[in-house]
Amino acid sequence: MQTPILEGLAKELNGNARIVKLNTDENAGVARQFGISSIPTLILFRDGKEVERMVGVQSAESLKRKLQ
Asked: Measured between alpha carbons, how far is 5 from 11 in angstroms, rounded to an integer?
């Protein structure tokens, strides 16, 4: 459910943000490092630092507001 929203947002942002998807089964160490215990978890980074964390499906509108 979250993937189509993120894909649409990536196109809309036209390279102004990087959206990365992580398979937590294949990357358990990374998931553990970032404390991911629920899926989906979206983490926003700015200048390499975490600025926001969202758990659960997020709407496109909500994500756009958070990225401004």
From this structure: 10
Q: Which amino acid is at 48?
A: G
Q: Could you tell me the residue ranges of all domains in the chain?
A: 2-67
Direct distance between the N- and C-terminal alpha carbons of the chain, in angstroms, rounded to an integer: 23
Question: Topology of 2-67 in CATH?
Answer: Glutaredoxin (3.40.30)
Q: What six digits make up the tokens of 25?
A: 């089964």
Q: How many residues does the chain have?
A: 68
pLDDT at 15: 84
Instruction: Give the global pTM.
Output: 0.86
Q: What is the mean pLDDT of residues 40-64?
A: 96
